[in-house]
Amino acid sequence: MENFLSENETSERATLPQKRARTAASDSDVQERLRAIVGAEHVLTEPERVEPYAQDAVKEKFPPEVVLFPRITKEISEILRLANERRFPVTARGGGVGYTGGAVPVEGGVVIGTDRMNEIKEINVADLYVVTEPGVVTYALQQAVEKHKLFFPPDPSSYKQSFIGGNIAENAGGIRSAKYGVTKHYVLGLEVVLPSGEIIRTGGVTSKNVVGFDLTGLICGSEGMLGIITEATLRLLPLPEATRTVRATFRTMEEACLCVPRFAQRSLVPVAIEVMDKHAIEAIENEFAFGISKNAGALLLVAVDGAPEEVERASLIVEEVMRAGGGFDVLRAVTPADEDRLWDVRRALSPAIKKYGTLKFNEDVVVPRSRVPELIRRAEEIGRRNETFVVNFGHAGDGNIHVNFMCDREDAEAVKRARKSVGEIFAAAVELGGTISGEHGIGYTKAPYLDMALGAATIDLMKKIKRALDPNNILNPGKMFV
Ligand SMILES: Cc1cc2nc3c(=O)[nH]c(=O)nc-3n(C[C@H](O)[C@H](O)[C@H](O)COP(=O)(O)OP(=O)(O)OC[C@H]3O[C@@H](n4cnc5c(N)ncnc54)[C@H](O)[C@@H]3O)c2cc1C
């Protein structure tokens, strides 16, 4: 699957000055010991060399004091033992394209880059799994297993930059989640270095395993706060033989979204159901002139996959459902080139909406999919009331919508209004039975909103788990909890 968002797309949330911390990681004797653990050539301390590790896609800078590139699990274990002894923070980093500041060392200390832990250790065709190190780029892993006609479905749009370790830590989703679910559904087992430095293994290679607490599930989505993943065993599926896409426009978002349950009523589970609102359509038309009708208030892109005869049949049903639901200008791909052209509008989206503002608050709220039209209405109302331009698009198949509040980064009042809009859309998502993040996680950017989504007792339990595993608060401090 193609990279649907441009490489340089970021939330560009803030332009605050750099925040430079000083901890024991800057002490010369500690740095000497770190060099002894990973080798001097794999240690960065000079300000200009640690700088690239100060930020992720949020673009707010918190420079680390030291960046380390270990190769093996034992080295990570030794780093964490030293961190506990000398009490300096440690933050794991994958591809560094997170949207909530997860990999950014907000309290300074050491960043562990997993770039050198990039070996795919085993692809098991008979038992349908792959064993991999955390630093493998998601796309590279997909390509490697596809050579064996196998399929790793999780596909965050950042898949050409993000690492498997980062995907597991964030429990990343993507366009194919409507049918295939998210990363955690493919994690069979893990090797993890706990904050204490102890090394544990969870799960195994079998798809069934109910021995003990589900620690694999606990680590998935723990945002690098409970342990550092050093190896993952991932479930694979047979590679679908074909995919087929149908695109249609509708007068309203409501009409477009009403098609979603109708696919299920026709016994169809499309692999992707992507929707975009009228502002998104206007933006891509103004920028790229695809020839989408001026009467379009919404656009739906639906893909089905499977055996060739099955995708042919399924795509005809998709077309039928869309037409019956008020869809017009319905286009059904026949060749791979058609397929590509239909998805071009989705790829054009991110560059196109940039013209609506120099600062974009890209929030990934999620609601039950039947409530998506109501969520969009609320987003528009919030935007109107706060005089903030809003563009909505996303994964209608699983109710995960990217609500983008746009403003001018130099206009302090406009930024304030956009931030207010963010809080309000989070409240709306929760009120509609959903939550504040479907994909991007909490990190530090959404930490102030955590209690909107979770009760006090739940947050307290999470803090107890964190304290039990990491009593010295060594691993990725300053995240999730304010
Ligand atoms: C253009 C763009 C498109 C995106 N599209 C999507 C999308 O479609 N779906 C989606 O879900 N997200 C998306 N994201 C967000 C982001 O790419 C995902 O959260 C991704 O999983 C981050 O992976 P990473 O390797 O860059 O992790 P990083 O940003 O490096 O780290 C993320 C978190 O994981 C932790 N971590 C990293 N490696 C490890 C490890 N080995 N062990 C333990 N913890 C670790 C870090 O400490 C941090 O807390 C997008 C981002 C961008 C910029």
Description:
Among the domains are: 24-113, Uridine Diphospho-n-acetylenolpyruvylglucosamine Reductase, domain 2, CATH 3.30.43; 120-238, Uridine Diphospho-n-acetylenolpyruvylglucosamine Reductase, domain 3 (2-Layer Sandwich); 240-346, 2-Layer Sandwich (Alpha-Beta Plaits). The chain contains 15 helices and 18 strands. It has helices spanning 28-38, 47-50, 73-86, 138-146, 164-170, 177-180, 215-219, 253-265, 278-288, 308-324, 336-353, 372-385, 412-431, 450-453, 456-469; strands spanning 43-44, 66-68, 90-93, 110-113, 120-124, 129-132, 150-151, 187-193, 199-203, 228-235, 237-238, 242-250, 272-277, 298-306, 328-332, 359-366, 389-395, 400-407. Strand 5 and strand 6 form a beta hairpin. The longest helix is centred in the C-terminal third of the chain and has 20 residues, at 412-431. The two termini are 37 Å apart. Mean pLDDT is 94; it is low at 1-17. Bound molecules: flavin-adenine dinucleotide (FAD). Flavin-adenine dinucleotide binds at residues 5, 9-10, 56-57, 91-99, 102-103, 114, 134, 156-158, 162-163, 165-167, 169-170, 172-174, 223-224, 228-229, 439-440, 476.
How would you summarize this macromolecular structure in one to three sentences?
The chain is α+β, with helices and mostly antiparallel strands.
Q: Which helices and strands appear, and what pairs or packs with what?
A:
Elements: H1 28-38, E1 43-44, H2 47-50, E2 66-68, H3 73-86, E3 90-93, E4 110-113, E5 120-124, E6 129-132, H4 138-146, E7 150-151, H5 164-170, H6 177-180, E8 187-193, E9 199-203, H7 215-219, E10 228-235, E11 237-238, E12 242-250, H8 253-265, E13 272-277, H9 278-288, E14 298-306, H10 308-324, E15 328-332, H11 336-353, E16 359-366, H12 372-385, E17 389-395, E18 400-407, H13 412-431, H14 450-453, H15 456-469
Parallel strand pairs: 2-4, 3-4
Antiparallel strand pairs: 1-2, 5-6, 6-10, 7-11, 8-9, 8-10, 12-14, 12-15, 13-14, 13-17, 16-18, 17-18
Flavin-adenine dinucleotide is lined by residues 5, 9-10, 56-57, 91-99, 102-103, 114, 134, 156-158, 162-163, 165-167, 169-170, 172-174, 223-224, 228-229, 439-440, 476.
